[in-house]
Each structure stands twice: as structure tokens, then as C-alpha cells.
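Supplementary Methods. Inverse-folding protocol.

Structures were first reduced to a C-alpha cell string of length 112. This string, shown here, constituted the complete conditioning input.
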């Protein structure tokens, strides 16, 4: 399967771009801690989906979707912590939460 055809990857990509934009306002002292973890995890989700698609094996794709689902939960947790610490403002937190929920839905559809 071409990764460009996977709706979950498009949703993960949109989330990644939003996080990239928001990360520009992260405090400098969080660049290599929570902020870095958020950015790295956000980048890993669409990458692992693309990798699963590239293996042209349904089993590999399902494993990638499962891994991406776990990473999405990790990212959701990191973002919640960032919100509690004031690293992510309430409006951005709401936007990211909506995108994460959309990604969970797409991943669930893709795993069926």
C-alpha cells in the first residue's frame, strides 16, 4: 500500500505540522526535554505508518498501526503534561486534543 493512500497517515501528518508550529513557542529550557519528546513522538507516528505501508505486507502494516496507536497515547500524555506545566496554552491544547482524537479514530479504522 502506498503510504499516501492511508488516511491515518494524513491525520498524523496534520498533527505533526500543528505540533511543529506550536513547538516554536516552547520555552528554550524545554527544547531537549518534554518539548523534544513531543516533537520526536509526533514525527515518529507518521514515519512508522509510512514504514508499515512500505513493507507491502498486511501483517507489517497492522503492526505499524498498533505501534502508532501506542505512540499516539504517549503523545497525548506528553501534551497533557505540557498543558499542565503551561508549556502549551489552552487553545493549542484543545486543538491538539481534537487532532489526537481524529488520529485515534483513523488508526482504529485502519486496524479493522
Amino acid at each position: 500500500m502506498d503510504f499516501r493512500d492511508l488516511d491515518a497517515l494524513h491525520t498524523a501528518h496534520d498533527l505533526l505540522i500543528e505540533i511543529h508550529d506550536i513547538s516554536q513557542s516552547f520555552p528554550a529550557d524545554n527544547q531537549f526535554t518534554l518539548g523534544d519528546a513531543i516533537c520526536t513522538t509526533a514525527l515518529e507516528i507518521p514515519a512508522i505508518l509510512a514504514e508499515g505501508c512500505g513493507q507491502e505486507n498486511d501483517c507489517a502494516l497492522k503492526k505499524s498501526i498498533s505501534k502508532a496507536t501506542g505512540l499516539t497515547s504517549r503523545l497525548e500524555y506528553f501534551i497533557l503534561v505540557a498543558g499542565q506545566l503551561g508549556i502549551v496554552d489552552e487553545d493549542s491544547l484543545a486543538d491538539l486534543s481534537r487532532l489526537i482524537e481524529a488520529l485515534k479514530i483513523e488508526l482504529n479504522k485502519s486496524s479493522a
